[in-house]
Amino acid sequence: MDGKTNNAANTKSEGESSVRRSWPELLGLTGEEAKKRIKEENPALDLHVVGPDGMVTADFRSNRVWIWVDSEGKVNRTPSIG
Questions:
Q1: Nearest CA among 37, 17, 30, 16 for reference residue 73
Q2: 29: how many CB neighbours lie within 10 A of its CB?
Q3: Can you tell me the distance from the alpha carbon of 71 to that of 53, in angstroms, rounded to the nearest whole number?
Q4: Helices (H) and strands (E) in the chain, counts
Q5: Residue 59 and residue 50 in contact, taking contact as beta carbons nearer than 8 Å
Q6: Nearest one of 37, 27, 4 to 75, comparing CA atoms
Q7: Is residue 74 classed exposed, middle or buried when 0-12, 13-18 and 19+ CB atoms within 10 A define those classes?
Q8: Which of 71, 17, 26, 72 is nearest to 47 (CA)?
Q9: 12: CB partners within 8 A, 6+ apart
Q10: Tens digit of pLDDT for each residue in 32-60?
Q11: Percentage of the chain exceeding pLDDT 90
């Protein structure tokens, strides 16, 4: 390999590197608290708290964050863009 890549998946648009894509530190917080913290950081994101039996679409959206919570309402998966 020559160290060069043309793979579109590895290409970042200008400014993309500064956009946060996941929030592992929110694990264990309530879904609403996690939603509040993400919204404070990036108000443009579309945030959804999803319960243990919640159903979601499988499409990827660069402005959406699923916040998965357990039966006690605590975040049990790292919230991330998608």
A1: 30
A2: 19
A3: 9
A4: 1, 3
A5: no
A6: 27
A7: middle
A8: 26
A9: none
A10: 999 999 999 999 999 999 999 999 999 99
A11: 77
Q: Are strands 80-81 and 64-68 parallel, antiparallel or unpaired?
A: antiparallel
Q: Which two tokens stand for residue 33?
A: 């608290």
Structure confidence at residue 27 (pLDDT): 98
Q: Give me 69's structure tokens.
A: 């919570």
pTM greater than the 0.90 cutoff: no
- 21 by DSSP, 3-state: which? coil
Look up tokens 């894509």; give the residue. 21
Note the CATH number of domain 20-81. 3.30.10.10
- Rounded CA-CA distance 51/49 in Å is 7
- Which amino acid is located at 79 in the chain? P
